[in-house]
Amino acid sequence: MTVTAATLATSSASTAGQTSPPGNTSKITSDFDTFLRMLTVQMQNQDPLNPIDSADYAVQLATFSGVEQQVRTNQLLADMQSRFQEMGMAEMAGWIGQEARSAAPVHLDGAPATLLPSPAAGADRAVLVVRDSRGALVAREEIPVSTDPYQWLGADAAGNPLPPGTYALSLESLQGDTVLNTSPVEHYARVVEVRSTPQGTSLILDGGVEVASSAVTALRQPQDQS
């Protein structure tokens, strides 16, 4: 019966991918006890005429020790990451109530939305493309070729007000009838919540729209809506 480095690495591989400190500690202890039992059985059943070199035992012990150290290192890194994320959320708590600028979908509730378009260089036409939450095209609206704020009233192709909901906006920059590029349109929306997710910290905006904090390009105090 032979205990090899591959056996030990396989035994501990699943442990290395976990991040629960109590479970990792007990798992390491359990694996080490199993390793010692296997090593004892190996020594008891070796061929007396061809005993295993003591150096092989040293290699196996060193291999297990290395795997154990890697597990502990992974656990420490996971703990540090969790603490850094908590620190980031604490700092972002001050964002709640402020307005964040991003290219997240716009929550339309009957009031105009202030958009911040960015037409491509050389464009002589700009078209605002509006899609609903299902991705269906609901409007194409010609807007000025300018980076000035644009008040979007939220109308469909016939000019009728769109129902309240969430809409994804993009801007087609054209030169004549040739589309130069299509880019997302940024706008400001009030931050109502900060969340921690497996992908990082995210913000919840008015209307329940979620956006990664890393996607926010600016922050400002709420503007007077009166």
TrEMBL record:
Membrane spanning stretches: none
Annotated spans, Disordered: 1-27
Presence of keyword tRNA-binding: no
Biased segments, Low complexity type: 1-20
InterPro entries according to UniProt: FlgD, FlgD/Vpr_Ig-like
An annotated GO BP: bacterial-type flagellum organization
Keyword terms: Bacterial flagellum biogenesis, Cell projection, Cilium, Flagellum
Domain of life of the native organism: Bacteria
Domain FlgD/Vpr Ig-like: residue ranges: 109-176
Family affiliation: Belongs to the FlgD family.
Role according to the record: Required for flagellar hook formation. May act as a scaffolding protein.
Protein name: Basal-body rod modification protein FlgD
UniProt source species: Tabrizicola piscis
Lineage: Bacteria, Pseudomonadati, Pseudomonadota, Alphaproteobacteria, Rhodobacterales
